[in-house]
Write a structure and sequence with these properties.
It comes from Nocardiopsis lambiniae. The chain has 93 residues and is mainly alpha-helical. Helix content is 65%, strand content 0%.
Length: 93
């Protein structure tokens, strides 16, 4: 299912960390990650995404029409920083 190569993780890393792979795809991805350091690195890099998304005040973004793009960028940046500093203690894939 997964062939090793320079961009092999491009096809599954995002869905892997979000937990969106089907069970058979997840098993194949897990097996691939055992032998592919490039994909392990890509997955590690993306593991902060679910934590950062969970930390965003989405309801505020949807209901407060005075929220500016600059404020959204700042909030998102802080969420990513917190998720990165958390080091996986809050969960993730």
């Amino acid at each position: 299912m997964f062939e090793s190569g320079e961009d092999c993780g491009e096809r599954f890393a995002g869905t892997y960390v979000l937990g969106a792979l089907e069970p058979d795809e997840r098993a194949a991805a897990d097996a691939h990650l055992l032998v592919c350091p490039s994909c392990r690195s890509r997955v590690r890099d993306l593991e902060i995404v679910p934590r950062a998304l969970a930390d965003l005040p989405l309801e505020e973004f949807l209901t407060d029409f005075s929220v500016t793009p600059d404020r959204i960028e700042g909030i998102a940046r802080r969420a990513v920083e917190r998720a990165a500093n958390d080091g996986g203690r809050s969960g993730g894939a």
